[in-house]
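Lecture 7, part B: from sequences to assemblies.

Below are the input chains for today's worked example.
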Amino acid sequence: MDQKNDKVDLECLGNDEIPRHIAIVMDGNGRWAKKRFLSRTLGHQAGVRMVHKVLERCGQRGVEVVTLFAFSSENWHRPQEEVSALMSLFVSTLEQQTEALHEKGVRLRFIGDRSAFNRKLQSEIVASEQKTRDNTHLTLVIAVNYGGRWDILEATRMIARKVEQGKLSVADLSQETIENQLAFPDLPEPDLFIRTGGEVRISNFLLWQLAYTELYFSDTLWPDFDGNCLDLAIEAYAGRQRRYGRTSVQIAAGAKVPVAL
Ligand code: IPE
Ligand code: IPE
Ligand code: MG
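Predicted structure of the full complex, as structure tokens:
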């Protein structure tokens, strides 16, 4: 678990010790607000402010992709006023921040079921993806109305349709066939998963994609999770040995392990 005041020195880490892709469950906004006798909405607003700091640090560290869980398919079950506040915050952040992210070279992508959003929001999402699509500094994937089971179900539907149309045969199905239909087939799988806020669960985030991701859980509430907390997570990642089923002796013998499952 992280100690917020520990300063971390990551300068000595090699490139392969820095995660290429970090996926984050930003949890704890509500508890952060409650501790301060503030509304949950203010907690969510504080959470958005922290996104910028963490993204900046990710960019400095050479992380290529950051995926943020902003709203799960289960979050619709929250009280109506909280859902509305979260949607308004999503719209206003998108409107206010796209330009700034663009200037910083961030490529924006969205994953999740967009059909639940109104037309205007759907077209704003597409516009921000189009505007930023050639940026190369960092890819920011926002998961809104996303669920890992939904992702796998959608992939299954696409594949079944192709089989039905005779474009694909059942005998040719492979893991790659499924991967290619999932949310971000063109991006590397997450190397590091971070969940803030003390809960130790995945909550229907990237179920397929997290198969061999290193998991890191922090007690720090998301609005307090600053650049130093991120560095601590990266330091913990750098200390892990990713074996993909092999032994540590095999890994120590030098074989770079590809994700061939
Ligand atoms: C995470 O913070 C943000 C979203 C789910 C949108 P929470 O709102 O879940 O915060 P806690 O878990 O109640 O503290
Ligand atoms: C997960 O957080 C979803 C997001 C951070 C968007 P929750 O707070 O909704 O997760 P549970 O309900 O505690 O599992
Ligand atoms: Mg929560």
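Note for the exam: Helices lie at 29-35, 40-61, 80-103, 119-132, 148-164, 175-179, 227-238, 248-252. Keep this in mind when comparing with the next example.
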